[in-house]
Amino acid sequence: MIKTTQRKINKNLVKKLKDTENNLANIFYFKNGICGFENLKEFIVTSLPQDTPENYKYLQSTEDEGLKLIMMNITVNPKDFSIINAKDLEISLHTKNLELKDVAIFLVTSMHSKLEKNYISVNTAAPIMLNPVSQEGWQVILDSPAYNVQHYLG
Question: Does the pLDDT value for residue 17 go beyond 60?
């Protein structure tokens, strides 16, 4: 487990975030950052507004207040989990001596509007994995034509 006292946390930003009672337990260290933000290493997972399904969360950088991503937790709902082949994820976990049951798997989510209709897409090509025991996170790049940066839901 990474000690939070060794991290460079923007404590003022963390105090502003919604889940302040559990905020240190929800901070994850990304050794390599995430795609496009490799220099940012600390992220906190917080809840979205109450009317949002429970499997959607924010991934907020603790180092850059302007970076907040919406993620969908695919480990909560078996239907969502079928978006990605478990064997493709297990390969990545094997290098860390982990199993699927040890992590929460999230997909970065985007909202799109076309012809006055709203669409939701998820990035199936680069899932985010969070290990709540070690408080580590990492992004996996799935190099397969089966996965897309914009996989439209419903």
Answer: no
